[in-house]
Amino acid sequence: MLTILFDGIAYGMLLFILACGLTVTLGLMNFINLAHGAFAMAGGYITVVMMNRYGISFYWCLPAAFLATAVIGAILERTLYRWLYQGSHLDQVLFSVGIVFMSVAAADYFMGGQQQLINLPPELSGRMEILGAGIGRYRLFTIVVCAVLAVTLQLILSRTRFGSRLRAAVDDRRVAMGLGINVSFVFALTFAFGSGLAGLGGAMGAEILGLDPNFPLTFMIYFLIVVSVGGTSTISGPFLAAMLLGIADVAGKYYVPAIGPFVIYALMIIMLIIRPNGLFARGAGR
């Protein structure tokens, strides 16, 4: 039981890091970026290439995946995404879905359709005994890293000048510009940071979730579940939602494997009925 709980928490933490960038772009920037999984896939493939072809340490691959996908996100935001900030949600959805299929085709062409594998460092491989339960070392590493990132992200958005400027830019773009806030730069930096988090999640998830060209399509629904259940007004909502969904998914696939995938969707429906605006949204459930 403890092993299942631990694996579920690790899975939930990974889902949160993968989805929190979408929470930022959707909740704070009001942009529906369904191509978020493509940035995660890019981070995963960057890690695979650096480790398997060039023998670079896994610990160096993680920041490299973050920085590389953040740069990619910044370039795409400046050249493509920013033209759709004032567009309809339908235009945003169609555009980002097109990016998804283009990224899937590109990954299949350059990397092949097979599942990609990475060799973890020896200290992160295997399991350890905690309270009589076998706990994966890499899952423990994932929990620690993702917890630090979650706290850091919450502090950045709630306690820093950049966070206040971002909220002001989202609330009223014209007033924010009148106050001297460079809204264009704030949005570009926010989008790049969210893309970088997705890339980092993809790098860390390559061993747990697997990595192939269909990654953005496979996990798109999971990202949307985390954001819809947790809400987009806070970071704590998606964090709790990812924890609950991660534990439920792992437990469901272990105890009732025949209907395991059904569990997470049933939980999503129940939670949305109870809290339709998100777990911590004001006025939710009324």
Largest sheet properties: 2 strands, antiparallel
The average pLDDT is 87
Secondary structure tally, helices: 11
Computed CA radius of gyration, to the nearest angstrom = 19 Å
User: What is the approximate shape?
Assistant: globular
| First-residue to last-residue Cα separation | 36 Å
- Overall domain count: 1
What would you say about this model in short?
This protein is mainly α and 286 residues long. The protein has 11 helices and 2 strands; from the N terminus they run ααααββααααααα. The chain has a two-stranded antiparallel sheet.
Description:
With 286 residues, the protein is mainly α. It is 71% helix and 3% strand. The protein has a two-stranded antiparallel ribbon with strand order 1-2. Strand 1 (127-130) and strand 2 form a beta hairpin. It starts with a helix and ends in a 12-residue tail after the last helix.
